[in-house]
Amino acid sequence: MSLFLFLVLVALVLGIIGFAAHGLFYLFIIGVVVLFADLAYVALRFRRGGRKHRIAR
Predict the structure, then answer these.
(1) How far is the CA of 49 from the CAs of 7, 8, 37, 53, 56, in angstroms?
(2) pLDDT digits over 1-19, tens only?
(3) Rounded to 5 degrees, what angle do the CA atoms 3, 23, 25 make?
(4) Which of 12, 22, 38, 39 gives 20 to 30 Å between its CA and that of 48?
(5) pTM to 2 decimal places
(6) Three-state secondary-structure class, residue 23
């Protein structure tokens, strides 16, 4: 979960810098791509993590 939060923070910082600074719009695009990749990673992890494996006795 800490990886998710770290990547969200990185995406926000890149997005803010890219949006605020003239000529650095590519940082905004990179921030958006990182955010979407992070959301896809979390969606896959939560979908897979819902199943519990039973131990056969």
Answers:
(1) 20, 20, 18, 10, 19
(2) 677 888 888 888 888 888 8
(3) 40
(4) 12
(5) 0.67
(6) coil
Instruction: Answer yes or no: is 34 within a domain.
Output: yes
56 domain-assigned = no
Output DSSP code: residue 34: H
Burial of 8 (0-12, 13-18, 19+ CB in 10 A): middle
d(CA 15, CA 27): 6
Question: Is 53 a domain residue?
Answer: no
Residue 31: CB atoms within 10 A of its CB come to 20
